[in-house]
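Example 3.2
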Amino acid sequence: MKIALTALLAAATLTLTGAAPAPAPASVTASVTAGSRGTTRTVSAWLPWWNIETGYQDARAHADQLHTVSPFWYATSSATAVNGETGAGNRRIIDGLHAKGIKVVPTVTESLDAPAMAALLGDRARRAAHVDALMAVAASRGYDGLDLDYERMTETEDAALRERVRTGYNALTTELCARLHALAKQCVITVMPRTRDTGLAFDYAHLGSVADRLRIMGYNLHNALQAPGPLSSLAWYEEFLTYATATAKVSRDKLEVALPAYGWNWTVGSTARATHVTTQEAEALRRAVGAPYTYDTASGTPHFTYTDDAGRRHEVWYQDARGTAAHLAVLTRFGVRAPGLWALGFEAPDLWPTLAER
């Protein structure tokens, strides 16, 4: 069906009023209602710098469920350079979160590729300088720790290079976590899911032993440059949680699984990068184009298709409260009680009662 997208989207609302998605099963609805009567702080969430005010107000509104917020504020570009993103270190944000009893543990990403990071991590002096730079960030504000989210360094098919990154990262995290702990600050390490062919540069057993929490990014099973498909799936969660708990033997008390509150809008047949949509945007778009709510029970993910003004077919996969409830059930089976969220301000309001079950 070809539609006048511009006019329809102009009329769409992001408050998610109107027709609702297909409801969760009765058992899920009942448990959500029961959980909402007495919540505990079991959730951690990222706070994107490009959506800071919306995400900040979201965090304060759900402070009774959040133990930690990680502003996405810093990026490593060399051994000694850890640069702040726009608004990094905003004291109003830090103080406001602390006033609600939420710990502030900012995220540090890296822009160095595998060869550059292997060289940095493998050099004792450069590695020590990098730990100093990270500790300077931790001491720059009233932070409660650091979240290290180094991903680009893992992008290599060279097994020998990957092993250098793995070994060097083990040394870095050992040194960084020890210094953070000496100041009574948290050391959080974010990792990709470890499966047969992904996350191989991360030594879960070691990282789980030195960090306070190991955050697994439970999303992007299908990413923006791949063919359309679910961002996560029940079988995928089973696979990487089996590895984390049974093979790597990471303490379940240290494990977090970060859940998606977003999706991708693919143009079918195109090689262009898919467009990012938050859960709220995806639902508003679905209503605007008049697409039925479709839920893939195999993956535990909603999706829909539509045709835009130019006649191009689109396929949208995202996550919502119904799918999240199904994925949380997998965490429960593995004894993992700590969900994370990417990211504050992306989710629909009905996600919070679902997370309250944790």
